[in-house]
Write a structure and sequence with these properties.
heterodimer; A: 255 residues; seven-stranded parallel sheet; B: 7 helices; 56% helix
């Protein structure tokens, strides 16, 4: 229970990787604020589940793309849970299209949530963390931020922005006792990437992953937990791949 | 809050934030020019003071305190050279400056370069007094 007494805010915490992160942090003793935008039901169900397991959790509604909403989320977390120590910027969306067919809103909407959300929530917690001289931020990015994929230029660009922002934010906030790292999941079956991990497409991608398997959301959450806790106390500005070796590949890595 | 407590806290914040040597951090040392502080260092110093003294000073207040609420157009002329009114204000918060020597020469962008460790003590004292009211 190394996170006992700590409070975490997880954006997009009701589903997928975010929900796994909430469970993992709560299991180690953190009180968790589960942010959601549209999935109120799953968010409330997750609170009940965490409470039933002896943990503490609340739901915090709000769209991370909206800076005022991000401020309000942080304010509510601090007020209702008595502080804030860990921010997990997990909320993300995808809107795949070929660049040839892509309209301005296709990339702007993705950027507003994926990068804007990280920016707004980070900015909202900074005064609080800086006053304490302590705090941890974990950004859930993607291997796509470092590589290409047909149809995901907007998503990849937004995650590339998150990766660059993670490094700069780590640099600016280190002296205030704040650590900022990112996890870069590879393929983990969630609603966001369901089209890539199911059926024949899924089988074809799986063959290209050195570990020959998709990541479980719990395996991503384990790394988020590590980066949130005292075990990673000397790490900041790191982009940690959690991808079964997918990022090692040069093309398909074979003829 | 007594002056010695503030001096001690300011010295510690400046030394820690800038990684400066103890003997460099003298009252007359200017934060930016002599000690090489950058904007992030000033922010760091202010947050260290908030933690050690419980006095919250926003970075924007630093410039506002120095300018004393005088509007930009009165503080400097069209070439952004600090006016006589501006210099009189600066003398209040930075008593060490030689206003005669600076008349007609001091650019607004150079003002913060004159701000010393002792002037920061003055600002913190000013804020502590406000907080005590």
């Amino acid at each position: 229970m190394k996170l006992q007494g700590q409070v975490a805010l997880v954006t997009g915490g009701s589903r997928g990787i975010g929900a796994a992160v909430c469970r993992r942090l709560a299991a180690d003793g953190a009180a968790v604020a589960i942010n959601y935008r549209s999935s109120e039901g799953p968010a409330k169900e997750l609170v009940r589940e965490i409470e039933a397991a002896g943990g503490r959790a609340i739901t915090v509604h709000g769209d991370v793309a909206d800076s005022a909403a991000a401020q309000e989320m942080v304010r509510r977390t601090v007020e209702d849970l008595g502080g804030l120590d860990i921010l997990v910027n997990n909320a993300g969306v995808a809107q795949d299209a070929l660049i040839f067919n892509m309209e301005m809103d296709d990339w702007l909407d993705v950027m507003k949530v994926n990068f804007g959300g990280v920016f707004h929530c980070t900015k909202a917690v900074l005064p609080h963390f800086m006053s304490k001289g302590a705090g941890v931020i974990v950004n859930v990015s993607s291997v796509m931020g470092e590589r290409g994929w047909v149809g995901e230029s907007n998503y990849a660009a937004s995650k590339g922005a998150v990766n660059a922002f993670t490094r700069c934010c780590a640099m600016e906030s280190a002296r205030f006792g704040i650590r900022v790292n990112a996890v870069l999941p590879g393929f983990a079956p969630t609603d966001l990437v369901a089209g890539l991990t199911e059926g024949a497409t899924g089988r074809s991608i799986k063959k290209q992953i050195p570990m020959r398997d998709f990541g479980e959301v719990e395996q991503i959450a384990d790394v988020v937990r590590f980066l949130s806790g005292p075990e990673s106390s000397y790490m900041t500005g790191s982009l940690v791949n959690v991808d079964g070796g997918a990022m090692t590949a040069l093309g398909l890595g074979r003829p | 809050m007594d002056r010695n407590t503030i001096i001690e806290a300011v010295n510690e914040a400046v030394i820690d934030a800038l990684g400066a040597e103890t003997d460099e951090v003298v009252p007359e040392a200017t934060l930016l020019d002599d000690l090489g502080a950058e904007s992030i260092d000033l922010l760091d110093i202010l947050f260290r003071l908030e933690r050690s003294l419980g006095i919250k000073i926003q970075a924007a207040e630093l410039a506002a305190y120095v300018q004393g609420g005088i509007p930009d157009e009165e503080f400097g002329d069209e070439n952004e050279i600090v006016s006589a009114v501006g210099l009189a204000q600066l003398k209040k918060v930075m008593p060490q400056i030689d206003t005669d020597a600076l008349t007609g020469k001091l650019q607004a962008t150079q003002v913060m370069g004159l701000f010393t460790v002792d002037n920061l003590v003055g600002l913190v004292e000013h804020r502590a007094a406000l907080a005590a009211v």
